[in-house]
Records
---
Amino acid sequence: MSSMMPRIKFRSMPVQLLLMIVTLGIYALYWFYQTAMEMREATGEYKASPALWLILIFIPFGAFFSYYFYSELYEKWSEQDFNRWLLWVIWLIFSPAVWFIVQSELNRRSTYH
């Protein structure tokens, strides 16, 4: 990991909600990839593959794995000690809650706007 502080971008929650509606959910895919890349950089987990996880979302049952790997990365990055299994289950039951949980923590720890 570099000596520089990892770049965690602040994202306006209302603007993101609007983007998700206007793009019919396509922004959610962009958000998934970008936030995974930021957490990967911050944790130094360079074996993590957000691009592969994004592809898995489009394969039947692949999303289960994709959401798990993302949840695992979030557990490593989060200062809240949020359990990966709990986040994974929330993702399966009500995915907007995951966006709120993760984005709230990202915004709290953001390093730039």
---
Amino acid sequence: MLTRRLIPCLDVIRGRVTKGVRFQNNVDLGDPVEIARRYYLDGCDELVVYDITASAERRPTDLDMVARVARAVRIPFAVGGGISSTDDMARALAAGAEKISVNSLAVLHPEIIAEGARAFGSQCMVLGMDPAATADRARCPSGYEVTIRGFRERTGLDAVEWARRAADLGVGEIVVNSVDADGTRSGFELNITRQIAEAVPVPVVASGGAGCAAHLRDVFVEAKADAAIVAGILHTGATTVARLKAELAEMGVPVRRDAGGKTP
């Protein structure tokens, strides 16, 4: 098994990190730069920073925040929210991000994936997708339907088919954020994560539901995820990146112990 990555996610509203359950009942957790720096020093492999109200507010990503995070850490991080064109991508990358995450925009305008991949390389393009369980197997044979606009709108797209199409368009990584598990800390949605991991030739990142190291082990071993996003259990201090990695290593899951701000 290849080394697995742990990726803290920072959902940002009006310059502050927030966390909720299924995008609701969000609470303020602090300054994104300070939090990013803390997770970096604790050994995380990468970061994801979502400016989650930028698109709804019809404004670009907070580039000042992106630049400040870039100065605070020395690991790759992805930026999402407020991205509507390759020009937006270029500005975020110039500010210090190494990856661009697109979600609803890519569903509505799939060509943005190919345009971004041509302009900056597939390694820069991350597809975020929010699949929800559905009983409509006629439209969605996988049993999961893609949702957009913060889980609020169902699209009729089958999650596995959309993942395949995005990979064909040039996306370099796919984040599978389960609508049903988001923020619950009850474990990742293994079924859809495994289906997508087996269907595409690019790395798959599991998101939504991390509650303990055992959940991470399950999604790495059983669902074949290449990486996992963790948020709530870190934000509340229930555990740390270093502790999760130590527990995973004890379970036989290979992780980088010299990642982030750690030294070999």
